[in-house]
Amino acid sequence: MKNLIKTENLKKFFTTEAGELQVLKGINLSIMEGEMVGIVGASGVGKSTLLHIIGAIDKPTSGNVFYNNTDIFSLDRNSIASFRNKTIGFVFQFHHLLPEFTAFENVMMPGLIKISSIPNAFGKGSKRSTYKEIVERAERLLEEMGLSERKRHRPGELSGGEQQRVAVARALILEPKIVLADEPTGNLDAATGEELFNIFINLNKEKGITFVIVTHNESLSKRCHRVLKMVDGRIAEWNLTLTNKRH
Questions:
Q1: Which end of the chain is more exposed for a tag (fewer CB within 10 A), N or C?
Q2: How far apart are CA 184 and CA 163, in angstroms?
Q3: Number of domains in the chain
Q4: Residue 204 sits in which domain range?
Q5: Is the overall model pTM greater than 0.85, yes or no?
Q6: Across residues 94-111, what is the average pLDDT?
């Protein structure tokens, strides 16, 4: 497998009234293409902060994040935003669906934002053809998520599990290389959480999408290829799970 992500001495500090709060204290890790990596640890150890920096949502205080040998934080702001849009899909504990739009429209939204920024130099028909591709992709993803008959429903008309599957489809609409998931099953019951995790596993196996998943659910994390345990802003250990024996 090819190395996809590498971090070097990643640190994140915040200044508070009580003084400097050190959240990440020198994180060095590598994630390969096609891996499923779980991140576990107690609340407040820096799991979500690490995920946000890997996803270029937040910047580190110091250190580097490389994607395919490109230091993403050496890029300008617009280039970082473009990279994030094309390369990374996000799934959060709270689905963050737009309540006034249907499931279908929510899934399409990242694609619509992308094509709205296509320069006129791309040609008169470019946006039209790209819009058609986004529509077809959204239709296919909702079908894969078992939501074809629910696509015209708004989020308030969907169950928690259905809303989270819509969020997963939205994360996949631009065909990212990696999906970062922050407690994606945290608001779901055990059975629905298991169902969602099975979707991740199938996407990983069938499409080769890399997943990095922050979770408190140890039984689910053990189904990842590797599990990273964080303690006090540092990586305490890497655990190779039994999943690897099947590869």
A1: C
A2: 11
A3: 1
A4: 3-246
A5: no
A6: 89
